[in-house]
Automatic annotation (TrEMBL):
Cellular component aspect of the GO annotation: cytoplasm; endomembrane system
Organism: Asparagus officinalis
Domain of life: Eukaryota
Protein name per UniProt: Uncharacterized protein
Family matches, as Pfam families: Ras
């Protein structure tokens, strides 16, 4: 139970990825602990919120689940602009969805919030016999691009809550006051190193 002393941090989080990768299923699993076998495609975007306690602090995720269809692509910037975190989802059985995920990452890096915590989720990890994207390939890509990576299964709940928990921890770590109030030095956050180098 949250006490009045508990600090609550609001964090806008957006899910991006191709149609059919399971973005809505991941959100439904995280927010309601449910899985629907035949989830209807999201139209535009759907909004959810969920609180997550991390030690003595609480993160309130304001989650935008965006539609994967190409015709809604132009709406995506409305949702990822100003987002504190983004989960880019692909389907481990569908290589095209992984290619599409990389395009979303590029777009976020170019146009999103420079301090955005980005996670790459290889969903449908329960379908191992149909796997087409190797864990190693995705892991290397994530490391090269400063992304946090997990394989998830909305169906069996593998790693879904863990992923949101890790994002919440990272956001709270980011929010810690700098020991150097003048702001002359960047704190050691390797994932953001390449996001804000002014003179390269």
């Amino acid at each position: 139970m949250a006490t009045s002393a508990n600090k609550i941090k609001n964090a806008k989080l957006v899910l991006l990825g191709d149609v059919g990768t399971g973005k809505s299923s991941i959100v439904l699993r995280f927010v309601k602990g449910q899985f629907v076998e035949f989830q209807e495609s999201t139209i535009g975007a759907a909004f959810f919120s969920q609180m997550l306690a991390v030690n003595d602090e609480t993160v309130k995720f304001e989650i935008w689940d965006t539609a994967g269809q190409e015709r809604y692509h132009s709406l995506a910037p409305m949702y990822y602009r100003g987002a504190a975190a983004a989960i880019v989802v692909y389907d481990i059985t569908n290589p095209a969805s992984f290619t599409r995920a990389k395009k979303w990452v590029q777009e976020l890096q170019a146009q999103g919030n420079a301090n955005c915590v980005m996670a790459l989720a290889g969903n449908k990890a329960d379908l191992l016999e149909s796997r087409k994207v190797s864990t190693e390939e995705a892991k290397i890509y994530a490391q090269e691009n400063g992304l946090f990576f997990m394989e998830t299964s909305a169906k069996t709940a593998i790693n879904v809550n863990d992923m949101f928990y890790e994002i919440a921890k990272t956001l709270l770590h980011q929010a810690e006051p700098s020991p150097n109030p003048t702001g002359m030095f960047l704190s050691d956050r390797p994932a953001q190193r390449n996001a804000s180098s002014c003179c390269s």
